[in-house]
Structure formats: C-alpha cells, structure tokens
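Crash report, auto-generated. Payload:
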Amino acid sequence: MSSNELLTRLGKTLMEDSLTDIDVMRQTSEPSAIQILPEANVIKVGGQSFMDRGRAAVFPFVQEIVENLPHHKMIIGTGAGTRARHAYSVGIDLGMPTGVLSVLGTFVSMQNARMLHYLLAKHGIPFIEPVQFPQLPLYLAERRAVIFMGMPPYTFWQQNPAVGRIPPHRTDTGAYLVSEVFGAKSMIYIKDEKGLYTADPKKDKGAKFIPKITVSELKALDLRDVVVEPAVLDMMQNAAHRRSIQIVNGLEPGNLTRALNGEAVGTIITAD
Amino acid sequence: MIHTDNRHHVFSKLMRESLIDKDVMASTETPVVRMLPHVHVVKIGGRSLIDGGRDALYPVAEVLNRILQKERLVLGVGGGTRSRHVFSIGLDLGLPTGVLAQLAMADALGNAHILGALLAPYGVVAIPPEIFGHLLPLFIQSAPGVIFNGVPPYSIWEHPPAVGRIPPHRTDAGCFILGECFGCKSVTLVKDVDGLYDSDPKKNPSASFIDEISVTDLKKKNLASLPFDEVLLDILKTTRLVKSFQIINGLKPDLIEAAVKGEHVGTIIHAD
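Recovered output after restart:
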C-alpha cells in the first residue's frame, strides 16, 4: 500500500462524497459498532420523582446500590426535579431561550449528582463531569460505580422543542445516550411509579399500568403524558445497541436489584 | 416549600407538573429574548475553503477583515477532510456515533486556530469551546469577532442517526443552533458552491440552481444530497428567532460581505 492510499474504500467515499448522501450513509453502518462497556448498567435516578423525596427515598436506595457493588457495574445519572421546574418557570417568564434553560437544568442535575455522590463517597465512588468521562472505565473497574449528571452537555446548543420552551433533551435522554454509546448492558430508570401508565397515575385513578410495550405501540397510543422523555423513544429506534429500557419504582426495596439481574419489575419499552 | 405528596416541592408554575405533558408544554410558549441581536454568524467551510489553503482562504480572510470593520461576527468553522478521515478510521474500528462526534471536535478546533492565526491582526482569535458559549457576549463586546469550532458540544451524547453512524449534528448545525439561541441577526454558511442545486453541480453540469426554498418544499424534493447538514431541516422547523440561513460561495469572497448586509446572493433556506 502506498503511503497515500486510504485504509478503506469507504474512506475514499467519505473524503469525496457528501455526508448527506443516503447511499454513502448506508455504507457507514458497517462494520457494526463495538460495545465499549458491555458489562455496565446505566441507572438514572429521578429528580422530582426520587431525589426530591429526600432521606426516606434516597437512603434505602443508596443501601441497595452498595449491596449491588460486588455483582454489578453501575453508571448512575441524576435527574433535576423541582428546582429545575422553578428555574424553568422563572426563565420562561423572563423570555430565556431553550439553550439558556438547558444550562439552568444542568446545574440542578449537577446538584443532585453531588448529593448522591457524598452519600456514596465512603465507598470510593466518584462523581464525574463530562470532561472526566475518559476516566470512567478506570473508576468502573476499580470502584464498580460512578455518578454523573444526567443532563446532556448541550447547553446553548440544546435544540428547541416543537411546542413551548422546555429543553426536549433532558436527563432521561442524557442517561440513555450514555447507555447507547457505551453499548451498556441495561438502561434502568428509577422513578416513583411502577412504570408506564395510560395516564399520570398521580392525577388519574383510572390510569392503567402497561408492563411491556414497543416504541411504535406506545406512539400509536398518543398519550398526553409519558413516563420517559419522548426523545428517548426516537433515539431507541435508531440505536445500534441499547434497544430496550426499563422503568422501575425505586421506592420499593429490591426493585433495583431485580432489574440489575435482568428481571422485569416495571415497564419495559423496546425498539421495534 | 410544599409537602403534599412526600416530594418536597419549590413553588413554581411548573411545580408537580410532568415536563412531558402536552398541555403543560404548550403553556410554556412565550416570546424569547434576543441575546445578541446585532451579531452575524458566518460559517467558513472546512473541506470547501480551509482545506483549499492559501488560494481559497486568503481572499476570504481579507473580506472578513473588511466586514469586521463594521459588523460583529461569530465565525464557525468546519472540520473538513481530516474529520472525514477520522470518521473512516473510527468506523473501521467499530466506534459508535458519539465517539465519532467527540473525535471530530478536534479537527474543527484545528481549523478554528488556522482562521484565528489569519485574523489575529484584527483581534479575532479562536476561543476554547469550554468557555465559548458562556463568555460569548463578553468576547463579542471586546473584539469585533470571535471564532469557534462550529461543532456543537454533543460529543458522546450525539444522537444516533437513522442510517449509518456519521454524527448528524456537525458544524453547519452547531453554527445555526448557536445563532438561534443567541437570537443573532443572520446565519450564513460559506461553501465552495453557489448554493443549492437539484443535483450535485460538481457531478452534473446541467443541475439547476434553487435560489430560495422552504423546508417543506425542500423535503418534498427528496434530493440525493444537500450542501449542508440535513438535520438543519428539522432544526429550522422549530426555530423561534432565526427563520432562515443562506448558503453562499466563498470562492467569490465578496459575496460574504453582501450576505452579511442581508443581500440575497446564494440560496436561502427558510422555515415554512
């Protein structure tokens, strides 16, 4: 091979052709993506649904994480919750664009990550910001768990939602994308409800529980409210690896452990 | 603080609300402030102009200097050929979309420093991406222009595309989203073609030029390739402040000055 030759024919195509050409894009599916951290589980701890409940919810959950350290590797992201809702409300009233609201949501998600981190600190578990992600594999190998803030670091580059001003890619999405890019073993959402219902069970007593559903079935239901950010559903359809997620009620002891063991304890949503 | 459901809420308009509920989201649709209404965003193509070296870029730098005497510019740059090369190697190694997005940041940052060296005599330099967004209003008051690597900070949080593994949010998208968030006066993408054609003019000499088109009309045409990041079509659909962008030919560098003045000298793609 002469020194000017490219490694692959695709390399030549990518240099010369358009990255908007669908035929070129099809060629970029192969070879398939590796799983970077196939043994890791990504767990997202709800903000409003979990952290905002304080000690009563969080302490037993932290204990369950510690009990699972010998058996499972966990990348634990945090939601934002009621303070983000406050910041968004004030920000919207002041005419802040979505990108600024995204910055505000990031700060709240970071506060929750710091609090969870201090509860787990004596077990040697670090909190890592996005710039520290290159150290994540080491921490996971050494300490078996890390904490991160669930909000994706889009800041001013957060895209507008179709309706309203709230950032559409929040902590459910940020955590999901971590599970997808690393080819993780599972994506588990810790909330304060058993999973997905036909309506918000806190507001509608007639809401029916849905234990298992596909993304297109869920979209066809056209629910007014869904237990995870809709962006996660769209991304699952395009995903190379993480094509299912589970939503579990973290207020019931044992659910995290069972979900980590691969059991169905809440709602499982799968890509088509 | 309100304790009605064992969650500890901070009083706000969004308190206890689901940020997914469609009616709640509609209530957050209010006017947005423009943070940088007098600033223009100009993206200088990587493969199309910077990789062209002295012949292509010196005249562009000269025109940019002339514009900077009167106008404030945020200059984004593309990653060009080196990004295409790192994509091809990364794909061959089985690396996922998020990793490819993370890798591509470096190429565009290199190009930002190249343009920064040419514009340094006028006080215009490349700003590190970590501080660029937050300090942009300060920089743009202190210097006539700033340069950033047009890449949005999605990194490993890049969305998996529907087809293949190339990151969908590249530098055109990064420049446009920034302009939208800061409410900039215009967004111009400077390439090495006159604008949009119904087929690639480099391959088909009889391709016909499209001087202005809406997102919906453009999607209907289902063109084989586009001279800008395809994801911009979706981004334009939800835009609030910047309703169009213009693609112009930087090999005719005077057009950059005309475009910044608001003249129609290339192809304008606008929201419906």
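Post-recovery validation: Residues 35 and 162 of chain A are 33 Å apart (CA to CA).
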